[in-house]
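User: I'll paste a sequence; please echo it back and then give the predicted structure.

Assistant: Echoing your sequence first, then the prediction.
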Amino acid sequence: MENKNSFDQWPISKEIITAIKDKGWSSPTDIQNDSITFALNGTDLLAQAKTGSGKTVAFGIPAIDRCIEDKSIQILILTPTRELASQVSEELNWLKGTKRIEIDAFYGGVGIEPQIQKIENGIEVIVGTPGRIIDLIRRNVLDISKLKMLILDEADRMLDMGFFPDVQWIISKSNNERQTLLFSATFPQEILDLSSEMMNEPEHVLTSEFEVEIPDISQKYSRIGRINKSWALSNIIFDFNFQGQVLVFCNTKRMVEMLEQRFSKVIKDKKISSLQGDMSQSAREKVMTKFKSGNIDLLISTDVAARGLHVDGVNLVVNYDLPNAVDSYVHRIGRTGRMGNFGVAWSLVSSEEMGMVSILKNVHGLDINEYEIPENNDEKSQYFSRKKDWNEHSNLFGMVCLSIDVGLNEGINHQKLFDWIKGLIRISDLAIGSISIDESVSKIEIHQSKVDYVIGAIEKNKDLGRIVDVAVV
């Protein structure tokens, strides 16, 4: 593929070129460089795009370039979520510059009558979620039988959310002469099957089948027990010193609300807000607008914001909870390091979450490295004190390894050590794990729930005629 060094080397509308230059962009990203030529030539396209790579512009430029002002629907873009539909619409509206075409987002959760009115008034580009698009078609308001281009954005997400039957129904109402562009981070077999049905000899812009594409950012993780995650988060945030916006991800709405309350009490000189699924659509849009405009310094969110929230000012993403899926991790951390900017993604990982770290590193080859939580002397951070938590020292099974300075030279063997520990405190056999004994040191695994009791009992015991030293390995 011939390398394009600037946007104006493509034969695209002067309005688009002017808008891009006004934005301060000089060179296309890889996905733009690889996709736009094909799309401008009218070729169907199957593209794998990493998050934060500029894919909206990759399909937005050819879509806008093909549009003419005639108040009829020419381009339909399907997205999996309302947030992404809104975001794509906003991005295309600045990308069109002064070109006189109408672009708007159509999704559920808001009144349909204003959207019907927009269509009746004339619109060239619709960005919508499958459910609302189907509703508009069934009401005989939206006619997509003469589309110039159909675009599926984040097709794998639509598959995950169960929208593929809806997408197939919408495609059946479209015309066969249209150009089709499909963008997805991954390509399950269902998507490949759909592409063979809906596309005409598409060009493929693909990365390695097994490679997870991520932005060029610094990925860090720290092993920390759940009860100390707030302390760890505060130290990371204060060490970062708000050199850009901060986005924190949690797995539950309850934790989002709790963290917002905690940090709002401590960081009074910064604007803090939250985003989660129980909020009304208008409330969520209000928060997202403020965050994108830079009026929120710290946003705490569930995965509702992981896709479709494109904010160039986010320089730090923190996974308060590690997600259960690699795809979710990639999309979360992709909220930083956008369009070549510097970014840091820091994950707080409890012992039960270490399995996902292993998958990220060893299966998918992600460059995620362990770091100590930074020390911080900011008086505000003292609100979050570090508590003793054996979970931070346990393995995946909750076992903590203790080193005891007795061994074979004092007549200790596996059974004697086992019986000795059992005699010190009331403890289940299941709370004792593996035992290894050397000449002068023994190691024994104890379940984290019993570690305090075992250590206390050993330190007070004088059966061996001396004080026995015990330490956590």
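The two ends are 55 Å apart (CA to CA). Residues 82-95 form the longest helix (14 residues).
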